[in-house]
Backbone:
């Protein structure tokens, strides 16, 4: 008889969505204020962009630490520690008197928020695999879409009434909510084993992941697809508010097209998975991504308008919702005993791709040209990597054993130290 997991699918989905949402919400709440920051600090546009670029950098790189730490020390204490850093950084950003202080605070915010992506995916892999895992990843996507969908709108409406500092006050409150949920609702799903805090062992884990073609191909499908959302965040505020002429409030409302398309797609995917299975819906999603990429590329030819910019963005986002659940599960499935490290590296590739492309766009200088050139390249990368992934022999998942009711059947620390084969 299979032991009952210590947390239900629904509970893991809700906690996972809350954890993973803190990073995108912190990005989306802030974007309407970027143009105002240029005037408030009497700074160059390129300097203000660093507040977003370094947030990405902290978010992407710190995941490589957060996940393995949670494998060794436990999911709960690591989540609480990183979120305390996030709250402290949010307070510092609220009180900042110079753009340099704000840049540092945003970097620290990114480090703190990084724990969400790593822990949420690791929690799912600790308890579930296969179709159950894909269903949870999909439900996380549905709930996740609501936060970033509303965040630019909330940020844009708060900005003229309460000022930009109020945005960071709200982030502080959100961080405290995550800490409370972690303390009172999240169950621990791994056995604490401090012997795993070993640089050589950690380097070996990452080396194995970086030489695993299945992990890399699935991860770069996610990187090319979902990473485009993070790259677009560095382009869209300047395209829509400077080139198209939207106000901060209008910009916030316009971003509903992006997140609303992802939310709608996630709802549809949940129904389609029950009929066709999760694997068969990836290719249609990539077709939507390719269509959105072609539409975005036309920005190189024709002048921008609201619909010209946002219709391709919405189509691309709709396609992401088809791709993300299955490919996230595929990347993590073989690595149950090192789920934290695998989830961290997956998140690093996902966020790192957005960081690299956003940074290249900043070097180009023209946000419109950068988006028309670079976002289609990310869509092409996702499609190419999926082709590589499909050429590999299928993976047969092993039963998920850890973290069962009342602690029964928990694996020993030594048994958890080696990756699944």
Residues:
């Amino acid at each position: 008889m299979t032991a009952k997991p210590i947390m239900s699918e629904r509970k893991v989905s809700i906690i996972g969505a809350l954890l993973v949402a803190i990073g995108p919400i912190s990005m989306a709440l802030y974007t309407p204020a970027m143009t105002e920051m240029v005037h408030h600090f009497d700074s160059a546009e390129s300097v203000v962009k660093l507040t977003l670029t370094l947030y990405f950098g902290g978010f992407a790189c710190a995941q490589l630490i957060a996940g393995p730490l949670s494998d060794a020390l436990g999911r709960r204490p690591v989540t609480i520690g990183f979120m305390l850093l996030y709250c402290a950084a949010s307070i510092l950003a609220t009180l900042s008197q110079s753009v340099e202080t704000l840049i540092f605070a945003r970097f620290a915010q990114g480090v703190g928020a990084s724990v969400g992506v790593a822990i949420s995916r690791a929690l799912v892999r600790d308890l579930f695999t296969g179709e159950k895992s894909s269903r949870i990843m999909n439900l996380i996507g549905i709930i996740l879409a609501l936060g970033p969908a509303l965040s630019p709108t909330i940020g844009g409406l708060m900005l003229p009434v309460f000022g930009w500092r109020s945005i960071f006050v709200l982030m502080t409150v959100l961080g405290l909510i995550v800490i409370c949920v972690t303390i009172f609702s999240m169950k621990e799903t791994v056995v604490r084993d401090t012997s795993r805090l070993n640089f050589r062992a950690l380097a070996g884990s990452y080396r194995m992941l970086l030489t695993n073609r299945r992990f890399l191909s699935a991860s770069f499908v996610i990187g090319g697809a979902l990473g485009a959302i993070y790259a677009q965040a560095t382009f869209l505020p300047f395209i829509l508010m400077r080139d198209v002429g939207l106000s901060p409030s209008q910009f916030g409302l316009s971003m509903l097209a992006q997140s609303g398309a992802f939310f709608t797609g996630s709802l549809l995917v949940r129904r389609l998975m029950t009929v066709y299975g999760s694997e068969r819906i990836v290719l249609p999603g990539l077709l939507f991504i390719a269509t959105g990429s072609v539409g975005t590329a036309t920005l190189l030819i024709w002048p921008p308008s609201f619909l010209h910019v946002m219709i391709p963005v919405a189509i691309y986002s709709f396609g992401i919702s088809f791709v993300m659940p299955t490919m996230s599960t595929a990347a993590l499935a073989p690595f149950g005993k090192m789920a934290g490290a695998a989830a961290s590296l997956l998140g690093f590739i996902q966020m790192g791709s957005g960081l690299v492309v956003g940074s290249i766009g900043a070097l180009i200088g023209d946000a419109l040209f950068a988006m028309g050139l670079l976002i289609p390249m990310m869509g092409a990368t996702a499609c190419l990597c999926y082709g590589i992934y499909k050429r590999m022999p299928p993976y047969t998942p092993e039963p998920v054993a850890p973290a069962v009711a009342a602690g029964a059947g928990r694996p020993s620390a030594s048994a958890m130290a080696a990756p699944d084969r």
Observations:
- Residues 399-421 have pLDDT under 50 and may be disordered.
- Residues 402 and 411 are 6 Å apart (CA to CA).
- DSSP finds 16 helices and no strands in the chain.
